[in-house]
Amino acid sequence: MNIQIINGPNLNLLGKREPGIYGSEGFESYLETLKSKYAEINLHYFQSNVEGELINKLHEVGFSFDGIILNAGAYTHTSIALTDAIAAIQVPVIEVHISNVHARESFRHHSMIAGNCKGVIAGFGLKSYELALTSFL
What we know:
Mean pLDDT: 93
Helix content: 25-40%
Structural class: alpha/beta
CATH architecture: 3-Layer(aba) Sandwich
Shape: globular
Strand content: 15-25%
Distance between the termini: 9 Å
Radius of gyration: 14 Å
């Protein structure tokens, strides 16, 4: 089974950025934990701060992988282009958020991409990724 994890803008700063909201662990460290715990799954990881690169990655894996876990960061709330890219591919996408976006600023309460995703997981810290991963098993 091939699962692609895609992180959007500013998520390269996990472990450094606002630890009260996002925690103190970097994503690469957490990814190693996931890979160890789910050794039978081929986990692939991609992060970019650039919207077009996220779309290119969705197109690249969206017809051949078994699932995509997407934390689009702030693009969640603004990107029609990501919404269209998710609609255009065949692989199911799970939208994830580390924080509970509904307990934060009101502009974070609406997701442009959720309607084209299989599901949405938010508010469980980095464990949100594992919850999404287990939905593909």
